[in-house]
Amino acid sequence: MAQAPLLQLSQIGLTFGGNPLFDGLDLVVQPGDRVALVGRNGSGKSTLMKLMAGLVEPDRGTRSLAPATSVGYMEQDPDFTPFATLGDFAAQALDPTEHYRIEMAAEGLDFDPARDPASASGGERRRAALAKLLAEAPELMLLDEPTNHLDIQAIGWLEARLRETRAAFVLISHDRAFLRALTRATLWLDRGQMRRREAGFEGFEDWRDKLWAEEDDARHKLDRKIKSEARWAVEGISARRKRNQGRVRALQALRAERAAQIRRQGTAAMALETAAPSGKLVAELERVHKSYGDRPILRDFSLRIQRGERVALVGPNGAGKTTLLRLIMGEEEPDSGTIRRGTNLVPALFDQTRAQLDPDSSLWENLTGDPLMRVPGQADQVMVRGRPKHVVGYLKEFLFDEAQARAPVRALSGGEKARLLLARIMAQPSNLLVLDEPTNDLDIETLDLLQDILGEYDGTVLLVSHDRDFIDRIASTTLVFDGGGQVTAYAGGWSDYLAQRPSDAEPGPKAPATGTPPAKPARAVEKPAKPSQGLSFTEAHRLERLPAEIARLEAEIAKLSELLADADLFTREPVKFRKATEALAARQSALEAAEEDWLTLAEKAEADASAR
Fold it and tell me: Phi/psi at 144 (nearest 5 deg)?
């Protein structure tokens, strides 16, 4: 017997500001559902969550909840006013005997339940809101961007909790890795209409693109039919006095159908212009120490960054990632050690706090008020990569409409603020991009575009992010902070770090004390015999790990070779061809070095065994 749904929305209609947000929307959540809710920024995902939670009333339609079903909603900006501590807020609906649940969640999410909300950061408040939801354990959880402001360790903890829960949940997130790991169904909100796919986020983008292609084909056929019928109508005037009025009415209906179709929102017209090249050396740090009071940030850290590198910084919140960026940029100085900075650096900074934006000023004022963008004597113009543009025209390139231009920045969503900040930093040429949590609040389409732009950017990129998929797509080097002042550099992105890290290391950032990149991963032809005691611990450990690393490298080389076998790839997608060629060369070099390592270690193990 089929189970009754936990929640059902039927024929929901809702209008904001005179424009319909939803019209005839239907949605069902079944017991045990693990659903990704996806859609463009501004499509109404958060509003739909509030409708599901019963916090917003629709203009029409019904919301039905199964009897005795509890629904929990993770608020984006909850009211902490009545509460003395974050823990008091999180435990407000719990029996005192259940307060241990808050302590457990606080440990996993890394916040202090005793902290005064007035002194807590926005990220700490959001983690407290997430702890409240998890501790209450409702039958249906509604989570709106739960991974924002979480470090990778906390994301891993949350992922494990949600994987184990028996509750149903609906999840909004830009984190592809998080969505792929957890979801079994996908709700796609597109231009006020809801589509459901009975599969998780994996494969969603292919499915979406197929539906869009079918839609474009149907629109093209309709346009051709309208054009044909319109030609008949015009020619019929001279051919006969009395036209077929039924056919004329059919033409009018076709035109009305075409006019009623809602065009898809395009992608932001983002672009980066590289300034004159910097010197080959961007920054060199030697034996750098940095502490705040008795808390170490960096210990004996050395690193060399060359022009064109993409360096990702990952680690727990507060581990020192932003401090390292400030040291590299010259905004802070080390307690000891030396930092040599390159020449001709033209930096552009994306600040995770959005501090460059004045929340009380309008979007217009935030652009024209920037000294680098101001056009003397032209109050309605901004300088964009050396050319004046009208403010509204430039804002439209980043998907803002004319009505928003005079609205205060504080009225924008998180994703809209991120797009506005990108509009500012992309207006000027640069050769060093410093991106501190750029992926927070951006939708997947904008993340795809940002990734492509960074792939074509000729300058150097320093990236702080907790988005594992984005790091994999961008980084050539990953710096892993352990939270105690130790930092290790790994070649490649997040997945490469997981493959290279010591087997006893946590999947979150804990690493040995060095700032020097380790040797490239190696491969073996076959798994060696168990290493003898004559090998050092490090050598024995490496010899045991080599076969798995080699299998991964061989699989990656096979995929890249298959991709490059497409003779039309260079003409069709030159950027993809270049990146694939570079990746193939890097992995082939790694394999050659690996074979040397394996043979050396295997021979040493065999010699030690013979000597005994």
Answer: -105, 105
Q: pLDDT category, 506, cuts 50, 70, 90?
A: low
Task: Please provide residue 71's backbone torsions phi and psi, each rounded to the nearest 5 degrees.
Answer: -120, 130
Which residue has 């940002």 as its token pair?
Answer: 450
Query: What would the pLDDT profile of 389-427 be if each residue is shown by its tens digit?
Result: 898 888 888 888 888 888 898 888 777 888 888 888 888
Q: How many CA atoms lie within 13 A of 511 on its CB side?
A: 30
Structure tokens at 543: 């010899």
Separation of alpha carbons 405 and 66, rounded Å: 44
Give the Cβ contact number of residue 48 at 10 Å.
27
Helix (H) or strand (E) holding 171: strand 168-172
pLDDT mean across residues, the chain:
81
Verdict on whether the full-model pTM lies above 0.85? no
- Asked if 363 contacts 407 with a C-beta cutoff of 8 angstroms, the reply is yes
What CATH code would you report for 537-611? 1.10.287
Contact assessment for residue 44 and residue 189, using Cβ atoms and an 8 Å cutoff: yes
Helical segments of 119-203, H only: 122-136, 152-164, 176-182
Query: Which tens digits make up the pLDDT trace of 107-130?
Result: 888 889 999 998 887 778 888 999
Please state, in angstroms and rounded to a whole number, the distance separating the CA atoms of residues 427 and 139.
Answer: 48
Q: Give the other-Cβ count within 10 Å of 269's Cβ.
A: 13
Fold exhibited by the domain 7-206: Rossmann fold (3.40.50)
**Token pair of 416, please?**
């809209």
For residue 339, what pLDDT band results from cuts at 50, 70 and 90?
Answer: very high
CB 117 within 8 A of CB 89: yes
CB-CB contact of 189 with 264 (8 Å): no
Decide: 151 and 110 in contact? Cβ < 8 Å. yes
Identify the band that residue 538 occupies on the pLDDT scale cut at 50, 70 and 90. Answer: low
Q: At what angle do helices 245-260 and 204-239 cross, to 10 degrees?
A: 150
CATH number of 272-346+429-518: 3.40.50.300
**Residue pointed to by tokens 């839609």:** 215
* Nearest one of 52, 88, 57, 85 to 71, comparing CA atoms: 52
Q: How many CB atoms lie within 10 A of CB 86?
A: 26
Reduced to 3 states, what is the DSSP secondary structure of residue 463?
strand
- Amino acid 266 reads G
CB atoms within 10 A of CB 457: 17
Residues in a beta bridge with 490? 478
pLDDT tens for residues 219-228? 666 666 666 6
Domain residue limits, the chain: 7-206, 207-260, 272-346+429-518, 356-427, 537-611
End-to-end Cα spacing for the chain? 69
Residue 117 near residue 80, CB atoms below 8 Å = yes
Fold agreement between 7-206 and 272-346+429-518 = yes
- The answer to whether residue 244 scores a pLDDT higher than 80 is no
Do the strands 477-481 and 487-491 form a parallel or antiparallel pair, or are they unpaired?
Answer: antiparallel
Position 63 confidence tier, pLDDT thresholds 50, 70, 90: very high
Question: What are the residues whose beta carbons fall under 8 Å from the beta carbon of 555, sequence distance 6 or more?
Answer: none
